[in-house]
Amino acid sequence: MSAGDTAWVLGSAALVLFMTPGLALFYGGMVRAKNVLAVMMNNLVSMGVVTVLWALVACSLAFGHDAGGGLIGDLHLAGLANLGHRLPGFHGLHVSPLAVVVFQLMFAIITAALISGGTVDRIRFPAFVLLIAVWLLLVYVPIAHWVFSPGGWLARRGVLDFAGGTVVEVNSGFSTLAVVLVLGRREGWPRESMAPHSVPLSLLGAGILWFGWFGFNAGSALGANDVAVHAFVNTQLAAAAGLLGWLAFEQVREHYPTTLGAASGAVAGMVAITPCAGFVSAMPALLIGLLAGLLCAMAVRLKFRLGYDDSLDVLGVHGVGGIVGMVLLGLFATRAVNATGANGLVYGGGFHLLGVELLATGATIVWAFGVTWLLATGIDRLVGLRVSRDDERRGLDLTQHAESAYSATGTGRIGS
User: Fold this and answer.
1) Which of 11, 193, 365, 412 reaches 20 to 30 Å from 152, CA-CA?
2) pLDDT recorded at residue 409
3) Residues 295-332: pLDDT tens digits?
């Protein structure tokens, strides 16, 4: 075991965990004041629920010995047992297996938390907790096994996904779409203005996300090595290009660039570079980020035309951004950056890699949307997903948590 590589992975895991409070701030600033604590709570509770389930069984189902067909792992690692030597199928690593497990745990946490962005203002807290618990086991874990585990059926076909373009981004985007279709629109949307209550709060959250994303992508090299350096640099380049791409779209289309657009563009660029970070060189990373900023800015406006209320644009940024990254990876991947990868179409690799990337993207969309829709429908019938109209009007901070983010008394606790 390399102490340096293990320290890098542990530090990266801490950065990725820090992204979830950053996401809470990013989302919290974009909702109305009466719902800010509720959306933050949904992010924070993901840290608790996912951690416990990951340790008990989810980690084993994702990274245990393949149980057949490359679809799911076995229970060999349940309870974080049998981690003394290496994870099944992982060869040549100089990192503690437990360090890899905790690093992957942080990915699972933030993917579950992302779903809260589409459901704000109207989802019942107990229903959200139940949803992400079952979703983790039936949606996230299988896709993680398919792509991240060497025994997964997509991994065996040669899919490249450096840090979760499918497992995190496409998965969260289309899972969110399924939930919001079951939930329905917010009261008054899109007729009433539902402007962010604190853009500065969202900008602070975006900054934390940007900072944490270096651990998300560069840490996925699972070592302090040259690939990690490429991933780090590519993350910065794509974020910057995504920011400028989104602002350019706003300037041309709407004649004013917005601060929230700048933050969203940076996130879109980082989403798109996530599957590519350790497989592409610098100039393609700039192009990937730029195209993601432009295309995601277009995508978030489609919800008004199509009529689905994805409140904070999880599908438009994460789902679409993930697709952009997976497709462009099939074009721009090069073994000159990562010898364990493959050459994409532009570098003489033919159409094979592009075909595998499209297959992985399509399989993720179908599974994430289909299974999540069934889960959300079942939970809605069992316990009810949505708050009452009266509770929605009063705000979820009061009705779900008996708190207020901006209480006049300064206590924040109702009745204190």
Assistant:
1) 11
2) 46
3) 999 999 999 999 999 999 999 999 999 999 999 999 99
Neighbours of 3 (CB within 10 A): 10
The pLDDT of residue 408: 58
- Provide the pLDDT for residue 416: 43
The answer to whether residue 85 is domain-embedded is yes
User: Is 414 inside any structural domain?
Assistant: no
Domain count, the chain: 1
HSE, side-chain direction, 13 A CA sphere, residue 283: 2
Q: Which residue type is seen at 260?
A: L
pLDDT in tens, 112-122: 999 999 999 99
Q: What is the mean pLDDT of residues 353-366?
A: 98
User: Is 407 part of any domain?
Assistant: no
* pLDDT interval class at 413 (50, 70, 90): low
The first and second tokens of residue 15, run together, are 């950065």
218 φ/ψ angles, rounded to the nearest 5 degrees: -65, -30
CATH number at residue 101: 1.10.3430.10
Separation between Cα atoms, residue 318 and residue 326, nearest integer Å: 12
229 found inside a domain: yes
Q: By C-alpha distance, which of 317, 342, 186 is closest to 239?
A: 317
Q: Taking Cα atoms as reference points, which of 163, 166, 44 lies closest to residue 112?
A: 44
In terms of residue numbers, what domain contains 86? Answer: 3-401
Q: Which of 142, 123, 96, 112 is nearest to 52 (CA)?
A: 112
